Amino acid sequence: QRLWASAGGDGPDTIRVMANNTCRDTELEGEWRPNTWRSEIQAMLRHDCFAITFGFLIKYFACCLLFVITLINIKNDCVTRYGGYPSNLLAVGQLIFAFMV
Questions:
Q1: pTM for this structure?
Q2: Residue 79, SS3?
Q3: Which residues of 40-76 are buried (b: 16+ CB within 10 A; e: fewer)?
């Protein structure tokens, strides 16, 4: 229970229930429910359903990926000057961004 609370959570499961029940024929295949073997295997094998990994990807992977992309962009901005402006003017914008983050 604790592992699922840290890895997935209720938010992604709510989205998965709405999306997976919308794309499936609920009268033919039944209602999709999270964390049940039948539903999770169906979600894993179908291309139009969100699998159990959706919660992990939204909660952790996407954040880490965006953080790495931001660091790469900051490094590139420090190495090459933007638009030929002097470094002291660029430092003001970089400090404002650093305080926001």
A1: 0.56
A2: helix
A3: bebbeeeeebbbbebbbebeeeeeeeeeeeeeeeeee
What token pair was written down for 26?
């609920």
80: exposed, middle or buried (C-beta count within 10 Å: 0-12, 13-18, 19+)? exposed
What single-letter DSSP state applies at residue 80? S
pLDDT tens per residue across all 101 residues of the chain = 556 555 555 677 788 888 888 877 777 777 888 878 888 888 888 888 888 788 778 888 899 999 999 899 888 877 887 777 887 887 888 789 888 87
Strand, helix or coil for residue 53: coil
| CA–centroid distance for 44 within its chain | 18
Cα 80 to chain centroid distance, Å, stands at: 30
**Per-residue pLDDT at 101:** 77
- The DSSP line for 4-27 is HHHHT-HHHHHHHHHHHHHHS-HH
